[in-house]
Amino acid sequence: MWQAVGKTRYRKIWLEDDILRADDAYEYLWPFTKPELPTEFAKVSDPHSAIRFERRYSPLGYDSLVENPEERKGGDPLEWVLKQAKFVKLAVELIYASAYQDGTSALRQFRYLNITNIIRKASFDSAHRDFGELIFPGGAYNYNYGTIVVMPTSEADALQSVPYFIERLVNENTKNLQQKLVVHYKGRLGSVLFYNALIEAIWSMVGDLALKTQQGQESGYFKRCEYKECNTPFLATDKRQRFCPRPEEAGDGESLCGLKFRQHNLQTRGAHRQEGKECREVL
Predict the structure, then answer these.
(1) What whole-number distance in Å separates Cα of residue 203 and Cα of residue 68?
(2) Phi, psi values for residue 223, rounded to 5°
(3) Which terminus of the chain has a smaller tally of CB atoms within 10 A, N or C?
(4) Same domain flag for 180 and 244
């Protein structure tokens, strides 16, 4: 297994002028030892969850992806973080749909995309298909980054389109990943995976997940969280697992989603008992 460089973790993460800023470094994160990273990042949807994610793990590293120093922000722009999270979630959902050959879900995910300038023309196999321009995050440059993609019109088309879509997303967001030989103590050679930003490691893990599920290596272990408010696909360590694993940084104990699921059921049963008691009193 490749060794990989770590990323600095910070005790303080806060939002200032729509930029997630960090201070008080204290240790390193080794992202490739955290298989839950894509799933946890896919749950980021607002400033609060973005701050919680970067505090639990590490900043995504926007500035380390920007070529011109004058364009750096001193942190991660919130809009960029949320866009990256949106597309990581989309990718994970498409991989899940592909793994279980769920064309309905795959087609639904493609319809969530903001694809513009749609035209109909003949493709390489002479069939007529809809094509459009997709704007998506490619490294740090996500505002004007576009590519032409096929718009699936059927469940079969959607499933066929998943690998091409995943390929484009992962490749455009992992351009700085490279394996290098390094000399360790006493001249021993080792292989180390280098990358510029945590977001590149996350996208690399998304690509690895796509490969493993396509090859059937994660058969029965790639599941969907049963807690309705989460419902995110995750990689289980046990086929009996029903909820997202608890992130290591959140401490030991029950899955957070499992805990919320159990609390919700207890509250629901309590409300039903109270309703029944009130009805009996009225009668």
Answers:
(1) 23
(2) -125, 170
(3) C
(4) no
Gyration radius of the chain's alpha carbons: 22
The residue type of 211 is L
* Residue 187 lies in domain: 3-219
Q: Answer yes or no: do 72 and 193 share one domain.
A: yes
Closest among 171, 167, 173 to 200, alpha carbons compared: 173
| Whole-structure pTM value | 0.85
H/E element holding 85?
A: helix 78-99
Count of domains for the chain? 2
* Mode of pairing for the β-strands spanning 178-183 and 222-224: unpaired
Start-to-end C-alpha separation, the chain: 69
Same domain? 54 vs 28: yes
Let me know whether 199 and 227 are in one domain.
no
Tens of pLDDT along 244-266?
887 766 555 678 888 888 887 87
